[in-house]
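Quick question, first post here. What does this chain look like in 3D?
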Amino acid sequence: MQSKKRTPRDDAARRRRRSTVRVDRVRVASFQRRLLAWYARHGRDLPWRRTRDPYAILVSEIMLQQTQVRRVLEYYPRFLARYPTVADLAVASTPAVRESWDGLGYYRRAANLRRAAQHVAERHGGRFPADVAALRQLPGVGRYTAGAVASFAFGQDAPIVDTNAARVLARVFGPGRRRGRTARLWTLAEATLPAGRAYEFNQAIMDLGALVCRARKPTCPVCPVRRACRAFERAAARQR
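> Answer (accepted):
Ran it through. Tokens below.
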């Protein structure tokens, strides 16, 4: 018997099925409530959180790629002082931008940031697009960065999955199988995102991963979401 030929639509359906996850709505609600309450009291005061300017937020997100926060705190204000608007960066020379980035490392990020500024200036009249799909067309902007700019600058209900958020989601809801794990984490991020509160929620989950739910030596006994966390439940059960 001749097998049925697969179509692109069939492949798309397969991908959707693989990334579908079941979540306990009670656990999700508890996680959201506890995480947001903790963030309201303990969220980090960072300079890029004091603005809704998509350009300034994009600069911070590109700088934060593979770089520690304390390092970015040094470079971020200097860079914006030299290139305060997307138009200023768009017309800057490559050597000048490279000089401003000197010491921060991963210099391709600086080149992509300049190209992204030129893209916004030339194709969007100097105004950043607000939706994730359009933001992902900018050079050097992937799914996480697009979601960060969309949620932090425009208040869009866009999920994010960086290293910290991925660790929190995997521990709270279970990592699942290794195959398809990234897709599952993105689905979890979308499923747990409270409508209308993406800004606080996305900032909160990153802070929790950076300050409490760390890769090494997580402080589980004081974690605000421990009562909603599967990893904490399993650890407690082993100690009984």
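DSSP finds 13 helices and no strands in the chain.
The mean pLDDT is 91.
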